[in-house]
Amino acid sequence: MKGSAMPAASTTSSTSTSTTSASTSASADHRGAAPVGVIVDGYSVGKYLPAAFRRLGADVVHLQSTPEFLDCVPPPDLRPYLANVVQDAADPARTVKELASYHPCGVLPGQETGVPPADRTAELLGLPGNPSATSALRRDKYRMIEALRAAGIRCADQLKSGDVQEVLAWARTTGYPVVVKPLSSASTDKVSVCSGPDEVRAAAAEILGSRDIFGRHNDELLAQSFLDGTEYIVDVIRGPGGARHVCGVWRYDKTLVGTRPVYDRDVLIDPGAPVVEPLVTYLDTVLDALDIRFGAAHAEIMMTAAGPVLVEVGARLDGIMDPGHHDSCLDGNQADLLALACVRPDEYRRRHPGDTLYRKHHEGIVVHVRTTRGGLVEAVDEEALARIRALDTVHLAVPRLAPGDRMRPTTDLLSSPLRVFLTGDSPQRLLADHRRIRLLADDVFRLAPN
């Protein structure tokens, strides 16, 4: 979700029509050739999957779940794909028949919007996946937590409502602070920690009637009890037969700016750290309760005084993952492991015959640069960016704004203007470079006068 989104109406219909009409002849030539993976809505982190499949000698086809590309995120790069198949909502069987001509080995979501269509398509093609009957548990955050409650798993108290007065009454009974957020968004979009009625009203006014980052209309909001503790990321893959591999555990370091939890950095945790085992054991129960039987999952879990409690989980790759960074500090990355599970399931089983845990080779930190500035980006200062990239521990520095984009003060992951991936042997050196990055970051973007 970097840079500016291209308008779907001006680019999509012609692209979708031409690639889809060409796909029949392309698929006819593909019989008996390389294995093929289907990527659904490869907008954001899904962009890493084509390369992962190609490293295994496989090809990829893109499945577009909407008639036109979403205009709220940059469109997927279709160049690595054999074809772009546009889902026929009126005749799903036609879409499945077209995809079947490629003899696919797997169907995977490229972002949150791809989760339900990937479930449904994999099911119709007879491929490993998660049940389409329970897709809503993996997309709707209210249903997600209620599924845990029904299974007797520790979880937050919550209310789903479009009535602000009902939310206020619930918050009085539950006790402040409470968390207010959209039902199906991501990247901390419009998430607020509210300490009183006025903040609840402001959060509700921002959410209700708006659209989330995937273009979905927010008719209701989700209010949840505040989870006090330290938040962790747990990334996993479930391969053939359901065996689970933990790809990494990271600690979120964040600051509350007004009502917004603003993420500062993600810190890789040693697999032998005492916190890892209870987090993973808890997540295993969550995966079962949400019917995540195959594929990637990215979980955010709060370690509270009572034990682990789920914040939310996405049935897709970690949206902040960079495969090269994970390869540099871990024993692999989610994208490559997920492709392996589809293309070479027997090899996956040999590598991960049961539930397994990652190995940590180096320290790792992901820095989410914050800014208090706002305005139109006039230029990216390459010399200032080079000074950050020259730091010893910097693996990758990614500007998330381009000339012509609007910078706004950081209130969530989407409004962080720069993301920097660090790795090395010394935690102290990583933290020292983190401090340097914070001093250098404002020089990277030149804003237009006024």
Description of the structure:
The chain is globular. Residues 1-28 have low confidence and may be disordered. Strands 9, 10, 11, 12, 13, 14, 15, 17 and 19 form a nine-stranded mixed sheet that branches. The protein has a four-stranded parallel sheet with strand order 3-2-1-4, with helices on both faces. The protein has helices at 8-30, 49-55, 92-100, 115-125, 141-150, 164-174, 197-207, 276-289, 323-329, 334-343, 345-351, 382-389, 427-440, and strands at 36-40, 59-64, 84-86, 104-109, 158-161, 178-181, 192-194, 221-225, 229-238, 244-257, 260-268, 295-304, 307-314, 356-357, 363-369, 375-380, 394-399, 406-407, 418-424, 445-447. The protein has 450 residues and is an alpha+beta fold.
Question: What's the topology here?
Answer:
Layout: H1 8-30, E1 36-40, H2 49-55, E2 59-64, E3 84-86, H3 92-100, E4 104-109, H4 115-125, H5 141-150, E5 158-161, H6 164-174, E6 178-181, E7 192-194, H7 197-207, E8 221-225, E9 229-238, E10 244-257, E11 260-268, H8 276-289, E12 295-304, E13 307-314, H9 323-329, H10 334-343, H11 345-351, E14 356-357, E15 363-369, E16 375-380, H12 382-389, E17 394-399, E18 406-407, E19 418-424, H13 427-440, E20 445-447
Parallel strand pairs: 1-2, 1-4, 2-3, 10-14
Antiparallel strand pairs: 5-8, 6-7, 6-8, 9-10, 9-12, 10-11, 11-15, 12-13, 15-19, 16-18, 16-20, 17-19
Helix pairs in contact: 2-10, 6-7, 10-11
